[in-house]
Amino acid sequence: MNTTIRVTAALALLAANLPALAASATVTRAWQFKEESVQGLAVRNLIGDIRVERGTTPGVHVTARATIETGLQTDADRLLRLIEYRTADIGAGSRFDVRLPNEYFPEIYWSGGASTWWGVSYVEYLGERIRLSGNRGDAPVVRVDLVIRAPAGAKLDVSNVFGKSVAQGFSGELKLDGGSGLLRSAGGEGALELDNGSGEVVVAGHRGRVGADTGSGSVKISDCKCEIVADTGSGEVEILGGKGRLSADTGSGRVKIEGFSGSIAADTGSGSVHARSVSDVPELDVDTGSGSVTVEGDLSALERLRIDTGSGGVRLSSSAQPSLEMRINTGSGGVDVDAPGATVRQSDDIWTVRMKEGAGSGVIDTGSGSVDIEFR
Known about the structure:
Layout: H1 2-17, E1 23-32, E2 41-47, E3 50-54, E4 61-70, H2 73-82, E5 84-88, E6 94-99, E7 107-114, E8 122-125, E9 128-133, E10 141-150, E11 154-162, E12 165-168, E13 171-178, E14 183-186, E15 189-196, E16 201-204, E17 207-214, E18 219-222, E19 225-232, E20 237-240, E21 243-250, E22 255-258, E23 261-268, E24 273-278, E25 283-288, E26 293-297, E27 304-309, E28 314-318, E29 324-330, E30 335-338, E31 343-347, E32 350-355, E33 360-366, E34 371-375
């Protein structure tokens, strides 16, 4: 009986301390910038999702949908009116800033914020310091979702600290900057730059130039006809299909390439580089600290080759031979060459393989890995 009383009392106390159902308020506003805004519009948002689309009007159009959740409806309605939208419509140098004044928003909820009483986390945004709480009932839940529509040829610089940013069919010059959310672009063209702190970067069907940089997230680019520059601190770089020119750099992740046509440069600190079904590769430059290198496909267009691994093995397999002379040096690994008609010479630790006229040049150097060459 006593146990039942204690349990009932505990449940009643727990219910009393649970936050009431959240009240919410939402409002949508829209801005139409002048035609000259396409020369350069910068957008800054703290929390929410952003979508960038190709527009049909001469200038840039921005729609903002703001939502506030708090314990009381009066607080939600009041805070919603206190969100500021600062704009400058001056052609190149135009701006659209979503501001949460610190005097009204000293603390907001974010799922990645501090969730213990002794933990503290802040974000610096537009010159103000806002505290982040990981407990949903301790601070208002704020989000501002933006839709940006710009005509072909526009120049946009979009920054979103917490939330994902997605571009669909954008044509022009676009920069997407994020903190930890997904950055994605599909069906675009022009100069595209995506810079993420720790989130994933995804690009599909782009035409032009792609620069993708993330601190610890992965980069995945597919079916692009463009120059690609991909850089991650510890994430994986994956290139699927497409053609052009590729430069991939990762600190500790691997580089995976499949079905790509064009020159390839890859650099990893401790990850492997695996390329399959590649073709039309005039230049191949791969450097790994401790990862292996595998390249398979049609390497008949190869003119310049450099592969350097600290402790990984190297395997090259091609359905046709290029006109190339390569030198192979391994510290402690073996060398196996299968290239019918090629001239193969060995002098001490150096192997020389000459295919056809030997017009191009190549070097393969491994610290402790083996080298396996198969050119049919």
